[in-house]
Amino acid sequence: MFVTNASRGLPRHRSRYPAERYTRWALRALTALLVLATLWLVVAFHLRGQWMFSLLFLVLGGSLAIVFGKRELMSHRYIFPALAGMGVFVIFPLVYTIGISFSNYSSSNLLSEERVRAQFLGQTYQAEGQAFDFQLVREGNRTRLYLEAKGAGDLEGARQLVSRPLAHAEAGQPLAVEPAQAAPSGEALGIREVIALRDALEALTLVTPDGTELKMSGLRSFAPMLPRFAENPDGSLTDRRDGGILTPDHEHGFFVTEDGERLTPGWPVAVGLDNYTSIFTDPDIRGPFLQIFVWTFVFAGLTVVFTLAVGFVLASLLQWEHLRGKALYRTLLILPYAVPAFISILIFKGMFNQNYGEINLILENLFGISPDWFTDPALARTMLLIVNTWLGYPYMLLLCMGLIQSIPRDLFEASAVDGGGPLTNVFRITLPLILKPLTPLLIAAFAFNFNNFVLIALLTEGSPDILGASTPAGTTDLLVSYTYRIAFQDAGQNFGLAAAIATLIFLLVVGLSALNLRLSKVKV
């Protein structure tokens, strides 16, 4: 006879096993902590004006609470971490990049409009005719500043001021000065001591009783620092030095002077398809972009062809029945695949050095030539293909070895009966049978080399440069390295244009992936 929890007078929801109950409580506590942590991130990003990140963590925290809070969604808890990771590290960066491509986001348009306005309003200037001569006066073990107004000028308030002891000055905090009838008694320090304390004096801010801030303006003077700009009701700024007006240009994201000059920094604004159209309409961008675009396809295509050719030939030789020491040869040929790529690339960079590299030393001794591998565009591209073939052939070798071994030996025996030789077997039997299963892998290798940033960054850095380009572009750049240089190496750091090119790269890679799935006959 079975005894249930109800017959024992226990609640139905209470488990007979305490470990399960404790595990359930721990899971709920962990879920609550994660939800609170995401809510804290939501508030933190919102206070910093990063509404996209705030929205991301709001969605993440809400979905976490829903999935782990409802028993009906228990089956979704196991896949939630994978979906959350894909959303945070794949989908969100993709959406964020596409969003940036429709803006003028750059090093000149980086801050929000509110922060740009605050930065202008925080600027100060030295008022003319209102300076104070100063002396450093030592009284025992204390040092004070004694200030006396220069000339009559238009200075208001006290004309003689004395500071509190400099030892009371705290880093980053202003030092108060008070009216004085005469200079304090003590030893006035000479110019040599003033120069020795110059750094400390330049970092010092003096505050008069009426709230005016004084900053060091010379080896013997302090001067009031006044706010340079005043904000007007219509949002414009007035320059108090010359009365000029700065008008906010919300179309381009800058404050503009009356002469039409744009002042930096600016703020990001939406520009629509301008970044995309400039890629194809601006001659200074279109020329280098199309050249790099074509070279990217040529580089990826030739790399696949060369690595496949070398790997297939070596795999065919390793299948030769009369070859001795196959295991040793197989190990030696696969060794480059075990060495990290960046180490091999740096070694090749030294070997191809134009002045003392081993390759040029050999060519010069044998043929009397010393190629300019890094300065000649054609030779630089040839060097890239050589190095990338070395790095990629072991992968093709492994694939071809496995596929060749899967071919039935009866086909080769039948070919021998018909009088077929090694070349006939290669072109009539081996290649046709391995190309079909290799096709999806070749497309994947093409997509990988299409974005082979590490090779370009470590070997040539995109050089030699394309002359006349308005953006940093090199003859050996791929689209991915070209995008990186626009975003992080160009003086203007045009993130919007780089994001537009990155979006185009994404669409191309998506197309290659779709083709790969189609050829692999994978149903999505």
From TrEMBL:
Chain ranges of the ABC transmembrane type-1 domain: 293-516
Keyword presence, Cell membrane: yes
UniProt-listed Gene3D superfamilies: D-maltodextrin-binding protein, MBP (2.40.430.10), MalF N-terminal region-like (3.10.650.10), MetI-like (1.10.3720.10)
Subcellular location: Cell inner membrane; Cell membrane
GO biological process: maltodextrin transmembrane transport
Predominant place of localization: membrane
Presence of keyword Transmembrane helix: yes
Pfam family of the protein (one): MalF_P2
Key words of the record: Cell inner membrane, Cell membrane, Membrane, Sugar transport, Transmembrane, Transmembrane helix, Transport
Record field: transmembrane: 25-45, 51-68, 80-102, 292-315, 327-348, 383-404, 438-459, 495-517
A cellular-component GO term for this protein: maltose transport complex
Membrane topology value: Multi-pass membrane protein
Molecular function in Gene Ontology: ABC-type maltose transporter activity
InterPro entries reported in the protein's UniProt record: MalF_N (IPR035277), MalF_P2 (IPR029345), MalF_P2_sf (IPR047103), MetI-like (IPR000515), MetI-like_sf (IPR035906)
Function per UniProt: Part of the ABC transporter complex MalEFGK involved in maltose/maltodextrin import. Probably responsible for the translocation of the substrate across the membrane.
Family, similarity comment: Belongs to the binding-protein-dependent transport system permease family. MalFG subfamily.
Known partners and oligomeric status: The complex is composed of two ATP-binding proteins (MalK), two transmembrane proteins (MalG and MalF) and a solute-binding protein (MalE).
Name assigned to this protein: Maltose/maltodextrin transport system permease protein
Organism: Halomonas stenophila
